[in-house]
Design brief:
The chain has seven helices and five strands; from the N terminus they run αβαβααβαβαβα. It has a single domain (4-152), classed as 3-Layer(aba) Sandwich (Rossmann fold). The chain is an alpha/beta fold. It has a five-stranded parallel beta sheet with strand order 3-2-1-4-5, sandwiched between helices.
Length: 160
């Protein structure tokens, strides 16, 4: 995990060396196969993938009480451990505008459940000549779905 301002300096150097910088962001609570596939797809849009992980505070504001289930440091470490991910930073905003302003990606990736026309990061990314790309998500794989499945187990003792 790299603090955002430090990561900004790293990606600026990498860009000067000719690398294509890709960013994406998310909560990544209860890391699952959908996250892994999403990040693998995102990484294919450039040479370096930098991922912004929402802070615990911003996840609570976005998802409500009881979330996140996994603390931000652990979520960031799990994302950073994935082969497709080069850098991870934690950000404390409800949207990634500051993240993209500091990192100035060549490509910013989100899932197709987002409309680039409504995303606050689209305007700044396009202002410096970057692209916003949406990619297909794995159907049936989401943290919310995992939570529903766990809750449906009710009081059953399925611990292994």
């Amino acid at each position: 995990m790299v603090p955002l301002q430090e990561l900004g300096a790293i990606v600026a150097r990498l860009r000067r060396e000719g690398h294509t910088i890709v960013t994406t962001n998310g909560c990544f609570d209860l890391l699952h196969i959908g996250h892994v596939q999403y990040l693998e797809q995102a990484s294919k849009h450039g040479d370096v993938l930098a991922v912004g992980v929402n802070s615990d505070n911003s996840v609570r504001q976005l998802k409500g009480p009881g979330r996140p289930i996994v603390p931000e440091g652990e979520r960031a470490a799990l994302v950073a451990a994935l082969e497709s991910v080069d850098y991870v930073t934690i950000f404390d905003r409800l949207n990634p505008s500051e993240l993209v302003a500091v990192l100035r990606p060549d490509v910013h990736v989100k899932g197709q459940d987002y409309d680039p026309k409504r995303m606050p990061e689209t305007v700044p990314v396009r202002q410096w000549g970057g692209r916003v790309v949406t990619i297909e998500l794995s159907e049936g794989h989401s943290t919310s779905e995992l939570i529903r499945r766990i809750q449906a187990l009710g009081g059953e003792d399925n611990e292994e």
